[in-house]
């Protein structure tokens, strides 16, 4: 690009600084959000790595068993290796910790952990946040999160369970700081003295052995020496390798949400592209005389187009630099709001890597140039004589007949392909969801292509009744909104994107809430489920046999109508299937599963009822035979869908006794008597369970509340993220109206001279913005809700039953807020137009 065009581009940027600043701000917001997500990811990873360096500090070599534990004998062999300065074995065992109400603290089906007190202080895997480490039996130190959550106090009591489930009262002497170590998954963690470790957990061997090297010893060489003395099934790696692995494990909690953020960042950039396109299209139309004069004095089409693209490049670059600076605030804000986006991310100074800079500057500039490409080509086609023959050429229709037919054909093709993709993806359920959503986006592209043809008609339809009621000002607003279909379509499309995505996610989340609630009610037909958590070293909270006498104590209370004892066993079929049975006198009411085929009346010795999904996977039908060792072949007499337990095969009580014996129940299904409230029933159960601390209780109300809280949090996150794109679209509407006001200053002065008051002029311009916003929000709501319903139908057909849930009130609220925000964004330029003097505007020859 030669110097004259560069000077011309810079002059045009200065001449239209205010209007281009609004467009540039849209790019700043979009680029700031996109680059801010990358800053967030890089900062979170750096924070994780720095925090994990503390938990693995001074470790040069670590030894871990692939199975089993490391014995003290192996530790002594490691200690004798040349180059070892210090070695410490770390005991990690399962330990149940009770809260202040005597209930077992669980996290994701896991009980707590017991850790050893470090033998070498420099190799400690945790810090002390308060107090001291245990020195004698009876003392305990607990992690900070558990202390805060359970309400433990220093020097106060903490009760733990040994392998047999017997409670032991300890004294809290310290608080542990584990950092972001994800090894324990949020479970309660306690440090115990060596004597208590052996007594409570029965563990004396080590889950991990850490080694520090002498000065001058290379960790990699020491790792090889240590590996040479290890037994089979044990591996050694360097401390750096351990930190990298832990950092990757911890950072995966960030990656999923980071992908979501990047997706919404790209959506924001797409909306920005519409705003930029609209702005340059309007500026090009307003500057038709200026561009034609350039053609008259010798500028070629390429030079004119180049000047416009150079303006867009400079605008995109400057706005991208502003977005890069804004990304520091966005990224650090996401870290500060870590409780919302990912728990326990340590605070860290913002990290900006060169890929983030490249993405911010490159994407912002590229989007600006691509958005200005069509307006630049249109500007290059301005005839040289336009400056002499016309005052302006700002009005643009949908195009001549040939272009109109081409637009219709392209829009129809895109819509047809999109609908075909949606129809193909619907029967595939969840695997077909990308095809459904992708097809929906193609349908949306078809709507964008057809928008210049559809928006004027939609504006006329929406504005028909207000024009009849409120008179000439509204009719003028309708005419103005219809005057330039391409401009109105681009403005409307920008708002439609954000509203459509918000509507789609609202429908999907509302459907998920409805379906999950339905499944909870059907699969949780009783009010409470009780099972026992094993504390004997099981790898998770696997249900064990319930204490004898618990069922009879609950059954004797008049608050409960049903107390059913479920026995279960596992048959070695492939990965094993769970078989369940209930005594016949208890197998009634909500305990009986929902039968979808066959009948439970024929359930007896030699027969079985199967879960519907399990039968479908195996291709089994009523009358088929299924061999379950040691029962032998059983005839399928019924298929069921919703059951109060997760067993895949239901057998009769005599069949279960003959095969597995009476055993002990591992689950109690408890339903309330008529007139007894959930709170009253829970209080009775909690009173009984004081004597059984290893028994946990789950209620339908608890499950429902947890589900609602999760879905509400997701809805809040998506609403906040999609709000960014809606904000950009709203800025675009304000920008468009500001440009339109400038473009029509002589027209506004003329209608003022003919008797239109300032208030009426302002009302006309605000009505125009309201009409465009109404069309954008309505079309976005319809399109997004339709896409959400289509995706929900496909999922429901495979994973549930019923109909999609459409949150009418929520959709209406979103649409109203978006339209209101668009009108408010247009208030300033409308008031500016109303205050403009009439005579100077009439004298302006544009």
TrEMBL record:
<keyword id="KW-1133">Transmembrane helix</keyword>
<feature type="domain" description="MacB-like periplasmic core">
    <location>
        <begin position="21"/>
        <end position="228"/>
    </location>
</feature>
<dbReference type="GO" id="GO:0022857">
    <property type="term" value="F:transmembrane transporter activity"/>
</dbReference>
<feature type="transmembrane region" description="Helical">
    <location>
        <begin position="354"/>
        <end position="374"/>
    </location>
</feature>
<feature type="domain" description="ABC3 transporter permease C-terminal">
    <location>
        <begin position="721"/>
        <end position="837"/>
    </location>
</feature>
<feature type="transmembrane region" description="Helical">
    <location>
        <begin position="304"/>
        <end position="334"/>
    </location>
</feature>
<feature type="transmembrane region" description="Helical">
    <location>
        <begin position="714"/>
        <end position="742"/>
    </location>
</feature>
<feature type="domain" description="ABC3 transporter permease C-terminal">
    <location>
        <begin position="264"/>
        <end position="384"/>
    </location>
</feature>
<feature type="transmembrane region" description="Helical">
    <location>
        <begin position="763"/>
        <end position="796"/>
    </location>
</feature>
<dbReference type="InterPro" id="IPR025857">
    <property type="entry name" value="MacB_PCD"/>
</dbReference>
<keyword id="KW-1003">Cell membrane</keyword>
<dbReference type="InterPro" id="IPR050250">
    <property type="entry name" value="Macrolide_Exporter_MacB"/>
</dbReference>
<feature type="transmembrane region" description="Helical">
    <location>
        <begin position="488"/>
        <end position="510"/>
    </location>
</feature>
<dbReference type="Pfam" id="PF12704">
    <property type="entry name" value="MacB_PCD"/>
</dbReference>
<dbReference type="InterPro" id="IPR003838">
    <property type="entry name" value="ABC3_permease_C"/>
</dbReference>
<feature type="transmembrane region" description="Helical">
    <location>
        <begin position="257"/>
        <end position="283"/>
    </location>
</feature>
<keyword id="KW-0472">Membrane</keyword>
<feature type="transmembrane region" description="Helical">
    <location>
        <begin position="808"/>
        <end position="828"/>
    </location>
</feature>
<comment type="similarity">
    <text>Belongs to the ABC-4 integral membrane protein family.</text>
</comment>
<feature type="transmembrane region" description="Helical">
    <location>
        <begin position="20"/>
        <end position="40"/>
    </location>
</feature>
<feature type="transmembrane region" description="Helical">
    <location>
        <begin position="408"/>
        <end position="430"/>
    </location>
</feature>
<feature type="domain" description="MacB-like periplasmic core">
    <location>
        <begin position="489"/>
        <end position="686"/>
    </location>
</feature>
<dbReference type="GO" id="GO:0005886">
    <property type="term" value="C:plasma membrane"/>
</dbReference>
<dbReference type="Pfam" id="PF02687">
    <property type="entry name" value="FtsX"/>
</dbReference>
<protein>
    <submittedName>
        <fullName>ABC transport system permease protein</fullName>
    </submittedName>
</protein>
<feature type="transmembrane region" description="Helical">
    <location>
        <begin position="436"/>
        <end position="455"/>
    </location>
</feature>
<keyword id="KW-0812">Transmembrane</keyword>
């Amino acid at each position: 690009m030669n110097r004259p065009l560069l000077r011309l581009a810079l002059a045009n940027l200065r001449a239209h600084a205010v209007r281009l600043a609004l467009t540039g701000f849209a790019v700043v917001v979009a680029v700031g959000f996109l680059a801010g997500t990358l800053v967030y990811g890089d900062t979170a990873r750096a924070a994780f790595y720095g925090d994990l360096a503390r938990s693995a500090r001074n470790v040069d070599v670590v030894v871990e068993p692939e199975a089993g534990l490391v014995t003290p004998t192996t530790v002594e062999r490691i200690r004798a290796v040349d180059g070892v300065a210090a070695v410490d074995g770390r005991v990690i065992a399962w330990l149940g910790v009770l809260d202040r109400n005597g209930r077992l603290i669980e996290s994701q089906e896991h009980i707590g952990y017991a850790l050893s007190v470090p033998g070498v202080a420099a190799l400690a895997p945790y810090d002390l946040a308060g107090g001291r480490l245990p020195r004698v039996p009876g003392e305990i130190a607990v992690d900070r999160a558990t202390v805060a959550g359970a309400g433990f106090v220093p020097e106060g009591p903490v009760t733990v369970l040994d392998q047999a489930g017997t409670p032991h009262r300890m004294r809290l002497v310290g608080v542990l700081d584990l950092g972001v170590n994800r090894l324990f998954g949020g479970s309660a963690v306690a440090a115990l003295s060596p004597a208590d470790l052996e007594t409570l957990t029965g563990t004396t061997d080590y889950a991990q052995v850490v080694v520090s090297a002498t000065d001058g010893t290379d960790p990699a060489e020491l790792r090889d020496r240590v590996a040479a003395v290890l037994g089979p099934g044990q591996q050694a790696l360097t401390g750096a390798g351990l930190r990298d692995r832990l950092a990757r494990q911890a950072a995966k909690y960030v990656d999923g949400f980071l992908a979501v953020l990047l997706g919404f960042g790209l959506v924001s950039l797409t909306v920005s592209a519409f705003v930029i396109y609209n702005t340059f299209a309007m500026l090009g139309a307003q500057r038709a005389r200026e561009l034609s004069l350039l053609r008259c004095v010798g500028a070629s089409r390429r030079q004119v187009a180049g000047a416009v693209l150079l303006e867009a490049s400079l605008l995109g670059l400057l706005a991208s630099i502003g977005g890069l600076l804004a990304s520091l605030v966005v990224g650090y804000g996401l870290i500060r709001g870590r409780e919302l986006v990912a728990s326990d991310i340590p605070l860290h100074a913002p990290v900006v890597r060169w890929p983030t800079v490249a993405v911010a500057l490159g994407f912002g500039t590229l989007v600006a140039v691509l958005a200005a490409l069509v307006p630049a080509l249109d500007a290059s086609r301005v005839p040289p004589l336009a400056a002499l023959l016309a005052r302006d050429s700002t009005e643009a229709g949908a195009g001549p007949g040939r272009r109109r037919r081409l637009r219709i054909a392209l829009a129809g093709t895109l819509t047809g392909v999109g609908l075909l993709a949606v129809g193909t993806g619907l029967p595939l359920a969840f695997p077909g969801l990308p095809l459904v959503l992708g097809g929906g986006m193609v349908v949306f592209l078809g709507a964008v292509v057809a928008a210049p043809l559809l928006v004027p008609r939609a504006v006329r339809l929406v504005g028909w009744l207000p024009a009849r009621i409120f008179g000439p000002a509204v009719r003028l607003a309708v005419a103005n909104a219809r005057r330039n279909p391409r401009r109105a379509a681009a403005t409307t499309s920008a708002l439609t994107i954000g509203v459509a995505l918000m509507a789609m996610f609202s429908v999907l989340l509302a459907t998920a809430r409805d379906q999950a609630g339905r499944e909870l009610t059907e699969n949780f037909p009783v009010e409470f489920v009780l099972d026992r958590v094993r504390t004997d070293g099981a790898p998770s909270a696997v249900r064990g046999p319930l204490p004898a006498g618990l069922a009879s104590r609950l059954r004797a209370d008049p608050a409960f109508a049903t107390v059913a004892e479920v026995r279960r066993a596992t048959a070695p079929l492939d990965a094993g299937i769970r078989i369940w049975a209930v005594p016949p006198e208890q197998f009634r009411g909500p305990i009986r599963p929902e039968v979808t085929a066959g009948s439970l009346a024929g359930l007896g010795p030699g027969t079985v009822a199967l879960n519907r999904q399990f039968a479908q996977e195996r291709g089994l039908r009523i009358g088929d035979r299924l061999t379950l060792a040691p029962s032998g072949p059983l005839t399928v007499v019924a298929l069921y869908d919703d059951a109060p337990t997760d067993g895949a095969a239901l057998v009769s009580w005599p069949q279960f006794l003959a095969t597995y014996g009476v055993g002990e129940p591992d689950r109690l299904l408890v339903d309330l008597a008529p007139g007894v409230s959930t709170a009253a029933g829970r209080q009775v159960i909690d009173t009984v369970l004081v004597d059984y601390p290893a028994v946990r209780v789950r209620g339908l109300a608890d499950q429902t509340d947890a589900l609602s809280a999760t879905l509400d949090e997701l809805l809040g996150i998506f609403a906040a993220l999609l709000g960014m794109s809606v904000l950009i679209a709203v800025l675009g509407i304000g920008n468009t109206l500001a440009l339109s006001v400038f473009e029509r200053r002589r027209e506004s002065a003329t209608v003022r001279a003919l008797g239109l008051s300032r208030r009426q002029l302002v009302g006309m311009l605000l009505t125009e913005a309201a009409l465009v916003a109404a069309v954008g929000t309505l079309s976005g709501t319809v399109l997004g809700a339709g896409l959400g319903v289509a995706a929900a139908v496909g999922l429901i057909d495979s994973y549930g039953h019923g109909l999609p849930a459409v949150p009418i009130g929520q959709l209406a609220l979103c649409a109203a807020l978006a339209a209101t925000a668009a009108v408010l964004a247009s208030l300033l330029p409308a008031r500016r137009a109303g205050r403009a003097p009439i005579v100077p505007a009439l004298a302006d020859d544009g």
